Amino acid sequence: MHAGSGWPIRLRDLVRRRDALVLTMRDASVLAVQHPAAYLTHEEVQLYRLTTYTGRSVEAAADQPFLTRDGWKPVSTLCPSDAVAIVAEYPRLFGRGDTDAELVKLLAYLTANDTNSDGAAPPIVDPDVRMDFEGAVQAKEDECAEIDGESDPPRLYVRGPSGTHSKILRYMDLVGVHGVPARERVVPEFIFGLRQDKLRLYLNRLFTCDGTIETSGRITYRTASVRMARQVQHRRPVDHDESRRPALRR
């Protein structure tokens, strides 16, 4: 993670740039932002993949230490029953990028789990959500139409006015999500560099479509794409009204 913007970034790209900010662990296991003090050359080695019970995954060299109940241990010495520490809360890492709020909403709606990323919306039962979707489409000067033969309530799809090409579908093409199969879907890369309010808006509408609140209070998100699940896990917690809450529709 680039600590200056919150963008996911490969380690080799961090080394190549030599000007990036990274996270370091201070006293009491608190994460802080810092410039790297040195860059060391390391020959290619075998990597181990560690996957936690909650689905988090990381690849590391054999001597990479992980914090366990018994202190720091190299990943190569860990057993399947060992518990390792994970980050409970990142520092406030948000970008400075900005874009149209209605397009951010539509990217979330039109790439939801029950869509084909072809301009058709997921099934929308809540009238407030339907109004929000239709308002976003109209704000971009496109039209909403109902799909013939669908059950009640009818599903909506986006089209351009009077047979013209849809501006929204053109935008989906531009960011690389138009027509992408469910298992290959990703969060568009530019989303990670957005300001806090726009990132929150995207997650808000994403969880509106595919999020679930269980009676236990646990909040889950479902998607057919493993990569998208990991990306949402990367940026799910957001600040809202001075408190830290999961991203949910108002």
Detail the topology: elements first, then pairings.
Blueprint: H1 11-17, E1 22-25, E2 31-34, E3 47-51, E4 57-61, E5 65-68, E6 71-74, H2 101-110, H3 127-139, E7 143-146, E8 156-159, H4 167-174, H5 196-210, E9 211-213, E10 219-221, H6 226-235, E11 238-240, E12 243-245
Antiparallel strand pairs: 1-2, 3-4, 5-6, 7-8, 9-10, 11-12
Helix pairs in contact: 2-3, 2-5
Largest pleated sheet: 2 strands, antiparallel
Instruction: Tell me the structural class.
Output: alpha+beta
Number of strands: 12
SSE order, as H and E?
HEEEEEEHHEEHHEEHEE
Q: If you average the pLDDT, what whole number results?
A: 84
Tell me the count of domains: 2
In spatial order, strands of the major sheet run 1-2
Number of helices: 6
The percentage helix is: 25-40%
List low-confidence stretches.
Answer: 237-250
Quick structural summary:
The chain is α+β, with helices and mostly antiparallel strands and about 250 residues long. About 25% of the residues lie in helices and about 20% in strands. It has two domains: about 10-75, no CATH class; about 100-245, no CATH class.
